[in-house]
Amino acid sequence: MTTQQPQLTETQKSAIEQMVINRVNAMNNDAVLCDAIDNKVHNMEEHLKAYFHERFHFHSKKA
């Protein structure tokens, strides 16, 4: 049996989307920013973390 994850608000989606774009843009040139974003993601609730990784995968394929 799977548990239903809470729906994300548009504000949460927007904030995560901005973090993803910053993380993708910083991948090759700003280890400090990447570490800060990764630490922030690590402390997120699981459903937020899953959405971040989903969006990160999407954007990193485009980069």
Q: State the domain count.
A: 1
Strand content: under 5%
Outline the biggest β-sheet: none
- SS class: mainly alpha
Radius of gyration, in Å, reads 12 Å
Global mean pLDDT: 86
Instruction: State the helicity in percent bands.
Output: over 70%
Unreliable runs: none
Query: Cα distance, first to last residue?
Result: 37 Å
User: Helix tally?
Assistant: 3
What pattern of helices and strands is seen along the backbone?
Answer: HHH
Which of globular, elongated, flat, extended, rod-shaped describes the shape?
Answer: globular
- Please give the number of β-strands: 0
Characterise the protein shown here.
The protein is mostly helical and 63 residues long. The protein has one domain (11-61). It is built from 3 helices and no strands. Helix 1 (10-26) runs antiparallel to helix 2 (31-42) and helix 1 (10-26) crosses helix 3 (46-62).
